[in-house]
Write a structure and sequence with these properties.
2 domains; three-stranded parallel sheet; 58% helix; coiled coil; 3 strands; mainly alpha; P-loop_NTPase
Length: 205
Amino acid sequence: MKLSGVIYTHRITDNRMSGSVCKNLDMFGRLCGDNAAERVRLVTTMWDKVKDRNTAENRVKQLEGNFWKPLIDEGARHQKFENTPQSAWKIIRNATGDPEALLLQEELVDAERRLNETTAGKALYSQFQRLLQEQKDTIKQLSDEAKVQQDPVLVKELEAEYKKIEAQLQKTWEEVEKLKIPWLRRLMLFFAKRTRSHTIEINQP
């Protein structure tokens, strides 16, 4: 089933782009692909809560010229949601048009790929790998600190934190293994049918 429109929302009251927001935006670009970008509406919300209109407009310029630029270059457009039914319907009417398959849909249906073999799945795998390395580094740091501490209470706290992160590490490792693509399957994918769409990568700070 192709989609007539895709809406991505962002609170205009947010004064910074956090790491998680940037990662979600990058994943969104990888899900959509360039062919479906024209059906994407980047909608800013919470305009009724804005105290300084000039500051909010400057945030829009920053979003359009930086974080959203790869999507806008492929045809996505920004619209404001003014918290009224009229504004909502205007966004919906402008977003809908000739249905277009998302890159994720093309990969799953046309190219017959598994979820972990899609562009979005591979990006998620990379994120898990980075998280895995961060957790490994934290565990080593906690272990080293516990060895040199003389305070038994602090040692106990460090050991508790060590066990907590170790459990998270194991869970992350299990998720990474689920997304891992066997080498023979990777070879088959190299010669498999290609998609019409291409991924949209968002620059992250």
